[in-house]
Write the structure tokens for this entry.
Amino acid sequence: MKQLRCPLNGLRNISEFIYGGEYHDVPDYRSCSSRDWSEHVFFAETKAGWVIEWWCHLPTSYWFLVERNTVSDEIRRSFPSSDLYQERVDFSRALAREKQSE
Amino acid sequence: MSELPVVQDPGSLPRRSPLYRLHLATGASFRQVEDNAVPYLMASLPGDTATARQLGLVDLCGLTKTGVKGPGAPAWLQQKRFQLPAEPNLAVLQPNGVLVARLSFDEFLILGDLKGQSSAFFDPEDIRLLDSAPQAYLLPRGDSHCWLGVVGAQASKMLVKLCAIDLGSEQFPDFVIAQTIIADISVIVIRHDLGLTPCFYLLADIASTEYLWEVLLDAMLEFVGGGVGLAALHTLLEQEPVSAM
């Protein structure tokens, strides 16, 4: 069976994981166009080669990122999402603040 | 023998294990921990203890458990004088027998002692103040998870049949945690040996309790294992005291 290394739980059988899609930089929702936001939400690049993907370790519901080659299925590294996201993006509060300032 | 009150009718208590009807049908006797009926003896004490030394399955759903979660959880628990594991997937036994398991950097599972004497983890005032604690909140576990124990010399050999993790002593020593899949369901496995006898706590979604109990009993057949009561674990603890306690 294929195995994947979870940053929290270590090397585990691939059956303990679920694929969560490609990782994309989140566009700034305050300045991006509707098309850019739709692309971010609905479209996938499906690149052949090295990509970063979201994976989830099901028994712990732990989401993390994996750098994987979609052609060779080689995995270069897996790392916690905290490496990329230092703070929570809170859309509701940000939108409320924008409404107040209008 | 334990000082836990005898329960004639588990149905008379507010809380019971999801398996209590199965235990009643096999002639188990019950004792009371807090407001829970806990299966105490499946057969006789010598019989249960002999089984537990080789391979026993015990229903610990009636013992108290809770959790605390959030970035502020470690600081809050340390303030309440809990000793915390330094890293996720490790557990620490407290001087009063309570087990604190660190499931991630900011999530803790707290399991009551096997004697049922240290089940009030926090004062009511502590819980009230927790509401205003910075980024820490109570995560009740009493009704979310079942708690089964697999005990005995053959425990890790039996679990090999159901789990991809090597739970042998060298790879998986005392107080190590694996959050993994056993028999196709998500399970938290915590090793907590009773003296020299290996013991694994398994915690899974409470809706899967009956399934997990049946699967484990079935897997135990070839090792001549079976269900045991809490009294057998007390005997193992008393005969083989744990140096860390």
